[in-house]
Amino acid sequence: MTPGEHQPSSAGLLGAGVIGSGWAARLTLAGVDVRLYDPAPEALETTHAQIERARRAWRRLTTAPLPPEGTLALVGSVEEAVEGAELIQESAPEREPLKRALLAQASRAAPPDAIIATSTSGLLPTRLSADMTGPERLVVGHPFNPVYLLPLVEVCAGSRTAPDTVERAQAIYRAVGMRPLVVRTEIDGFIADRLLEALWREALWLVADDVATVEEIDDAIRFGAGLRWAAMGTFLTYRLAGGRAGMRHFMAQFGPALELPWTRLTDVPELDEQLIEKIVAQSDAQAQGRSIDELIEIRDDCLVAVLVGLKAAGFGAGEEVQRSERRLLDLASARAPVYRDGWLVLHEAVVVPEWIDYNGHMTEFRYLQVLADATDAVLRHVGIDADYIAQRGSYFTAETHLRHLAEGHVGDGLYVASQLLGHDPKRLHLFHEARRTADGTVIATGEHLLLHVDPSTHRVAPAPDDVLRAIDGIADRQRGLARPESAGRRIG
After folding, report:
1. Residue 12 β-bridge partners
2. Fewest CB within 10 angstroms: 3, 104, 134, 434, which?
3. Which CATH number fits domain 10-190: 3.40.50.720, 3.40.140.10, 3.30.70.1520, 3.40.50.920?
4. Does the model's pTM come out above 0.90?
C-alpha cells in the first residue's frame, strides 16, 4: 500500500440504487468485503448486475491482475450493514429527511472510528449530520456514475466534521482507485454538480425554445468540447485557446463576451408537462430503440476507450488509471506465490472481445501478450518492480518462441503456468503454458530468454544478489519438475 492510502477490510453500504450498487462494484472489485442494506426486493439482483458490468469494464481497461474480489452480503437492517465496518457509504434517494434519519440510525450502531460518508450530490453535510451520534465522523463522498469506472469523488466536510475524517476518507478512496477532490467550502451542489447544473439549465432553455433537440445538444458536447474536457477540463482548454500568450490573452479576447446576453443561467424554464413530454419524446427517438442495458454497455465501452487513450497519454483521468495499475501490480506482487503441480501460477486473464480476430478467436499478438504478462508477473515476484526498473535495471527479452495450440474465445478464463528452465547471474530462461481455466487445455506455450541490463550503461550485467536469491527460490521449488517436451524446439 502506498503512502496516503488505506484499504478498508469491510464496508457497509446503505442503498442499492445506481450509485449504491456502483459503490458495491467498485469496492468488491478492489477486494473489500461489503454488507449491503436496501429493503427493495430487487436490490441483490441489481447489485450483482452492476458488479458484472464492472468486471467487464475493468477487463478491458487494464491487463493488471485484479485482487481477489471482496464478498457481498445483503443484510436485513442498517445495524447489520454497519457492524464492524471501516467505511459506511450512504446512497439513499436525495431527500434530506430520509438521509438524516438513515445517517442518524447508522451512527448509533457504527464503530466509533468508522468513516460515515454520504453520496449526496448536493445536500449540505452539516444539515445531514444534525441528528447523528458522533457527527465528527461524517463526510460527503460524492461519486460519479458509473462509480466503478469514473475515479472522481468529491469530499466535503460539515461544520462538525473532524479534519482527520477528511484525511482518512481520502486515504480509503485512493486505495480503491479513486481521485478525491476536497471541496474546501461547504456549498450546495459542491463543485462538479454546480458546473453540470449550469449546462443543464441552458440545455433545457434550448429545448424549451425549440433552438435544438436533445440529440443536437448532446452532439454539440460529445463531438466538440466534451472530447477536450475529458483531457483538460475548462481552464486548461481556454489557456490553449489564448495561443502562446495563454490565459491572459484569452481573457482579454473572449472576456467581453460574458457581458453579452447569450445564456439564461439566472432563470430556468418551467418544467411543465408540455416541456417534459417534449424532452421524453426526443430522448426516446435519440435512443433508437436501444434498451437501458444496451446503452449502459455502450457508455462503459466508450468510457473505457477514452480512459485507455488518456492512460497512454498519461494525462487527465489517465494518470489515475496508471496509478491504479501500479497499485494492482504491487498488490499482485505481494501475494503469496501459487504452485500447481510444481508450476508457478502468477497470471490470470479473461479473453475479451477486443482480443478476437475475424476468425472468431484470439489474435496472434494477444497470445504473446498473455505470455508476456506472465513473464512480467515472474519478474515482479523476484523483485523487479517499478522502483527497481527506475534505479537498478531490468530483464529484457532477447529471444521468444511461441506455439499456438488451441483457440481462445470470448469469455474464456486463462491462467499461465510458468517453469524456470535455467538461470545464471545475467540470464533468465522461462517456459510458460497458457491454459484454459475451465478444462486445463494448453492453448499456447512460450519460451523466453531474458538478459539483465544495467540502466546506467545499457549493457548486460549481473542481477543483484537479492534478485538472484529470489530466482534461486523458484529453482528450489521446481527442482525435479520435468522439462517440457517442446522446450528448446525450433520451427521445423
Report:
1. 35, 88
2. 3
3. 3.40.50.720
4. no
